[in-house]
Specification:
about 170 residues; alpha+beta; eight-stranded antiparallel β-sheet; 4 helices; 8 strands; about 40% strand
Length: about 170
């Protein structure tokens, strides 16, 4: 996403309370079938297109590994319901990271709910980063190839938005 597009407030993440735990939640409506979204979040080549190459053992207790271009990161699959729920945690910058993807059919498309549970879900940089990656996921699902960059003008605008508390 080289051009800075207007931000849709519906795409913004927000911190919510889930069972007395703060969670950064994004809810996206995607113009792709649930099986395409599932493949995009579980297939190593697909994850490499919009985030980092990730491989996983598709079962609770399975291993998950990331190739970020530096030291590989690894963790565990915490939740796995084929085609519907993928939850995992891994050691990364700032401590243990914990995320969950929930995929549901929504007409001809998909409702994707993404939760970031740790580290600190209130950190605006995490909100900006996940927003950016989810935008890149939508771009990938639309048949576009996101630029192979670690940042761009869109990401920088998202950082400003979340730092001001507007996201």
């Amino acid at each position: 996403m080289d051009d800075v597009a207007p931000l849709d407030p519906a795409d913004e993440g927000r911190v919510i309370d889930v069972d007395a735990v703060a969670v950064l939640r994004f809810e996206r409506s995607l113009d792709a079938a649930p099986d395409a979204v599932w493949a995009a979040i579980t297939d190593a080549d697909a994850t490499a297109a919009w985030a980092f190459r990730m491989s996983l053992e598709p079962r609770v207790g399975g291993a998950v590994t990331f190739d970020t271009g530096g030291e590989p990161a690894s963790g565990d699959v915490l939740g796995y319901d084929e085609g519907r729920v993928l939850e995992y945690a891994w050691g990364g910058p700032g401590g243990r990271w914990h995320v969950c993807f929930m995929v549901d059919a929504d007409g001809a498309g998909t409702a994707l709910t993404f939760d970031h549970l740790a580290p600190d879900p209130r950190d605006p940089d995490f909100a900006a980063g996940w927003h950016w990656h989810l935008d890149r996921l939508a771009q990938h699902l639309a048949g576009e190839r996101p630029a192979e960059v670690f940042s761009d003008e869109h990401f920088e605008e998202l950082q400003r938005l979340y730092a001001r508390g507007e996201g």
